Amino acid sequence: MIKIFVTLLIFFLGNVVQCQAQNSDEVKEVLTNITSQMANLKTVQADFTQEKKMAVFTSPIILRGTLLWEKPDSFAWRIVSPIQYIIVMRQGIARQWEGEHNTIQEFQMSSNPVMRVASSQLQKWFGGNYQKLATEYDVSLAGRQPLILACVPHQDSPESGVIARISIQFREDLRYIERITIEEVSGDITNIKFENTHFNLPISEDSWRIGLVSPHV
Amino acid sequence: MFEACFEKVFLFFQRFKRTVLIILCSAIALFAIAATCIHFDNDIVSMLPSDPKLRRDFDLVRGSAFAGKVVLSFELKSPDRSLDDLVRYVDTVVQRLPGPLVNKVIKGPDLSPDELVKFVQIGPRLIGEKSLEAFSGRTSPSAIDESLRSVRSRLISFQGMFISGIVQADPLGIFSQELTALQQLAATFGRNVTFYNDHFATQDGKHLMLILETPVQITDAERSKELISYIQACLKDIPSYAQADIIAGHTHTVANESLIKSDIARTVTVATIAYLLVLICFFRDMRAAIFFLIPACSVLVALVCSGLIFGRISAFIVALASVIIGISDDYGILVYTAIRTAGRRDVVSCMARPIVLAALFTSGIFFVFFFSSIPGYHQLAFLTIISIWLCVLFVLLIFPHLVTTSALRLPRGVGEGPTSPKKDRQKIVAWIILIVILCVGAQRMTFSSDISTLDGVDAKTRAGEEKFEEVWLGRYKQGIFVVTAPTLEEALTVNRSVYNDSASFSKQITSIAPFMLPEQEQKKNIAAWRVFWQTKKGQDLRDSVQVSAMQNGFSPDAFASFLDLTQRDSFPKFEDISFLKQMSERFISSQKGLVRVLTFFPEEPGYTVHFNRLAHKYPGSFIFSRTEFSRRFNSSINQEALRLAGYAGLFLCFVAAFFLRRMRLILAVLSAAVTCILAIAGVYGFLGKPLTAPALVAMMIAVGLSIDYGVFLLYSLQNKIDTGTAKAVSISAATTLTGALSLLAAHHPALFSIGLSLSVGLGVGWLCAQIIMPALYRLYCSNACEAKNE
After folding, report:
1. B1-65+286-409 — its CATH code?
2. What is the rounded CA–CA span in Å between residue B706 and residue B712?
3. Minimal Cα–Cα distance from A162 to chain B, Å?
């Protein structure tokens, strides 16, 4: 009886290891594929709907806004409702506008640890280099149709204290992200869905000036 | 009289030669054993002038963030990689480094969100009644509502997840000033330093720094080499996108040691070959080699005596004294040549007077070091004088009984041969022209006490250090205001007052004062905090927060940590916040029963004036400036050198006047020494090189030897017996010069400096003693001497 049990165990363990190896190869292939698809991207402009379920709030918060991204590191995130908020990160400087108080704050990203960590995360998620993402997160395939990547930060990484898991769902044509879900260690969940996505359209310099970011792309 | 006394002692030693030799050998063996018990001191402090301000500043430099430690600076080389990649690699190095050679690795303070939340919890200790009053003015229901709406915006913005803990703990921004000031603490490590994910990073996000604490002393060359090899092995797998530079005093020790070793090996080989050639070609007697052992044995005995008197002996001084005592070789050569030339041992009695006089001159130069304010120099004087006189005693009383008396034919010495008054005058005219030329050069000579000019470190290490300074410190000069007091509480109280007095500069200065308050003030602040929240206004404020939170959609527990803080009786302490505790080591230290608290400020005129004023206001406090320290150090060393040179000059004149009595004789003997000094000063002036401390020591050796040659040759001119002095001086000078000239090929700047000084000074001093001094004697002194004798 014990012999049979051990044989079965070895058989199943062998299968698990084999599956993991196959999975790992498949993930690598998928990441290479997405990275090469996105390598041609120079700009991205999209509308988004962001749903935040946070323990600190009694009910989920739904935000609507636009995203601008330009290679290599320009990023604008504008929330138009229910609050008005814009953050533009470009050339190492972050400028933030809060509509509530109509105040503008400017940070050198290098000298503001929170901003730097946050911007580095944005670059990883939205920047299109998913092969690099795999060096910092344990990436697995959570779905094939549509393609969903599940990313868990390495335990020794700084973001592991905040982020528990990120799921990135891609468009069918794999040109960009369709949905991103961030699960925090605290239990909070953020779900962002992108729509009306346009690729490689020129973005005017004015769009990076705070207060002048176009509400509609 | 002198000769008669000497003869008696000489004969006594001759009679008991064997017994004396046995006693001497046994004594040397005992001294060798005793020498193993001597405690050597590697501390550079013994080489500093005893100016209390200089020493106080030096203590501070030694306690600085990087002193005695190893710094690893990592650079991100590839634009395709992020600082996070570098962080990951550096973290693997951090895991690997600790071991017997690395005690502790400091990568940076832990400024994680959890730690920041903890920091907020010590907040009530930090803010006083005034801050609470100011806060109280911004606590209308509408202001609270506005604050909470702002909190809501920040929480739902994309960076919300990284700041939620702090925002929930301090939604009204009561401690926002203190939180902002935390970032300023990084500036103590350099203007460009910031914190990134628990690491020291540059603001351009391209560099990381590790500070390693090591038990290896910078002066320990062997272990320094092990340490550097160990660190290099730990960095062996550095990825292609990164580069690491090791910044440490240890790299200088290793580089200097290997350079000095190769230079010295070459010099010793050349000098040994020269001496062997002398032994084989001229003396043809291997027993003559004993005179090489004389200085070594003398140093051994003197070392034990110094150990008994001073307790600990500076290792630098021992090295320096061992070089200087090489002068004593010449006494042996002189006595040996005299015995072999005359073919009898008692001829030594004719040599006793000039050798004793030469030793008096040389030890006189070192005697003035007793008047120095540098404690190490007292040891140098003692060690050198004792060694020289032991050499003299051995050379005159024991050595002659060990050598053969068979006659020896030596080639003609420099300056020997037929002379005429005309030729002598021509020589003197040429000498005067040389003196004038050298005086012109000497006027251009400068003195440098900058130790860095003597550093033999390679170009790669130097480039790494320059880059480090530019990248991390931003070519920024940092001044330090130091508060000293017998207790930490008193020091913190003064430091707090200094901080309050510098409120207008608060953004530019870096102080621990906002975070580490005196215990009394903390108690007062806590009491004020409790009172504030116990009043009706405080209770109303709490209620307003809860109401506004509800209206803005926050859950009932959203600000539980903040509300808890307002009702607490006890709060965490400064020591409970690990990053503050870590940072406090940079600001607070205690030494010699005094606690020191530092404040860092930009070394610019406005700040210096302000802090100078505070230094007068608060007794026990002072300003430390690296520029000022360097200036004071250089000026102190220069003044010391000039003062000692003046005393040495006076002492030489006094000894010459006392023993030679006649002005013309004194001038003739000192002509070689004066020419030697002018030659070194002139050549350094013409070459545009500053005279360094080792060159100055070499100058003293050259002056000592030049005087010796002058004295020996003067007495040989006065003596009627042929003692072969001119030949002995030529041989002695030629062998010493060979060694000195080989130093000109040295790669180490200090050794090159010594080589240049010795070669020029000794070459010119020797030629002057052998050519000019006899000419001066024959023209201006001999008739008068003969007349006096008649």
Report:
1. 1.20.1640.10
2. 10
3. 7
